[in-house]
Amino acid sequence: MFPLIQRCCFHTPFKVTGPRLLLCGKNKTTCSSLSLCLQRDVCLLSRSPSLNTASVYATKLQAFHTSLPFFKKKTPKESDAKDPGVLKRSAESLKESPKPALYLSLTGLIPFVSVPLAMAIQGTYYPEMAFAQITYGAATVSFLGGIRWGFALPESSPAKPDWLNLANSTIPPLLACQALFLKDITSGAVMLVIALGIALHYDVSLLPPYPRWFKVLRVGGTVVMVLSLLATAVLKAGLEAQLSDSSDKWMSTK
Known about the structure:
mainly alpha; 2 domains
């Protein structure tokens, strides 16, 4: 029994000496089978089932932990990290535009901006200036509609002179003419805003062969024109209401 305990505790080789060999001498088969049984029991005892089970569970847990990709920290892509942004890309595309097109487009926005700015500085609404802004806006919308004719008519143009390109370009000028016939400046400004939005939709969405700098220039110019027209309409309502209040007070004092 002592050699068995020694083998289990201290992992020493099992030896059968002296008297045990004599006891087993009469029946070698029994002795050999007994030694094999003892060795098998010792091997089973030396392996701890709890440790084996724990190692199996640890392996499964490790595999489960490493197999969940959504717990891992995702690193941003280089394209996302180096994205310059929409405004920066637009500014870079404007640098590629021809200088005459850029300067003439910026100069053409001055009549739109100057009208509401002058009325806001002086604090007075001028109907003549507002009507002049509406007239200039109608001419600008008609020019923007004619751009598509000039783009679609050449034989080498990617746009075909079909009904879609030629007929749609006449819609903004028709709306612009309708704005001139309206007596109310606010209604004319709203009509021009609708016409500018339709023309911008045609140039940006329906004709992708336009260069990027032209699309950026069209978007920026349309935003400035729309804000200027709406500012004139707001100033008309506010200044006229203020003028009517002041006239009522003056009449009440008399």
